[in-house]
Recover the amino acids of this structure.
């Protein structure tokens, strides 16, 4: 019996780690598509994306190995090895279609707030047509609809602030996401919000590393960032917290109490 429980725990924790890790790919890839097909400024450079993949995500993703079993783990029917895979449609839909979209929404909030701080409206940002932010040379002067003028230096400075804000949006969003991802059926409040000390440490480490990357002089020039506005990051963190925790708790409640509902076929993982 102990062996069965440990096997189920290992499988469940691997799924949780995958669901958590895949979510941040949406706010990394979607902006590139918008830049390519819509013409919006690209809100995060490749080096900042690597800092997420190879730096801030490592400890939180690894912390699932230390997660204790959910209370209902032995009530789950035996897994069908032919159909119950680690990366099922439901898990991918959760990572990309739910958690990933929430993360991206928080990042877009910081994106537009940062531009707005410098006097650029959403319509101004969308209509740059890949020609500005960044400016190619000193001849690239951008003028907004209300007559504001931005030279090369100003454009690049604003873009670097926006990139840092988007990067920190992913970091703080994942810091919120990792807690709700620790359970797939049981409420995280019943399971214990802070019972996994490795997760607690991982969140602190991830945020500290994220701040180190975007706030450290010299390193800023390498990753192309400038100090993001702390208030904008706070707004992003609050949005992600409310959205992640409310939607996942609602899904878990439905999974526990209405397992036969048709919606569970797509949402329960």
């Amino acid at each position: 019996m102990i062996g069965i429980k440990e096997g189920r725990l290992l499988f469940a924790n691997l799924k949780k780690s995958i669901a958590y890790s895949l979510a941040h790919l949406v706010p990394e890839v979607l902006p590139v598509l918008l830049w390519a097909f819509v013409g919006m400024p690209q809100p995060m450079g490749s080096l900042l994306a690597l800092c997420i993949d190879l730096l801030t995500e490592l400890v939180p993703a690894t912390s699932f190995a230390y997660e204790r079993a959910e209370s209902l783990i032995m009530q789950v029917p035996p897994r069908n090895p032919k159909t119950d895979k680690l990366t099922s449609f439901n898990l991918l839909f959760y990572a990309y279609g739910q958690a990933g979209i929430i993360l991206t929404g928080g990042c877009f909030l910081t994106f537009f707030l940062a531009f707005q701080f410098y006097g650029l409206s959403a319509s101004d940002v969308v209509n740059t047509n890949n020609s500005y932010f960044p400016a190619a040379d000193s001849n690239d002067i951008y003028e907004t609809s209300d007559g504001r003028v931005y030279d090369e230096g100003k454009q690049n400075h604003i873009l670097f602030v926006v990139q840092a804000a988007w990067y920190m949006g992913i970091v703080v969003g994942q810091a919120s996401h990792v807690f709700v991802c620790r359970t797939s059926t049981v409420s995280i409040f019943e399971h214990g919000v802070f019972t996994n000390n490795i997760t607690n440490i991982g969140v602190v480490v991830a945020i500290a590393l994220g701040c180190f990357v975007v706030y450290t002089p010299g390193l800023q020039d390498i990753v192309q960032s400038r100090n993001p506005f702390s208030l904008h990051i706070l707004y992003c963190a609050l949005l992600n917290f409310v959205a992640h925790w409310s939607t996942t708790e609602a899904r878990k409640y439905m999974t526990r109490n209405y397992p036969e509902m048709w919606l569970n076929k797509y949402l329960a993982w």
About this structure: The CA atoms of residues 151 and 248 lie 45 Å apart. The chain has twelve helices and two strands. The chain has a mean pLDDT of 91. The radius of gyration is 21 Å.
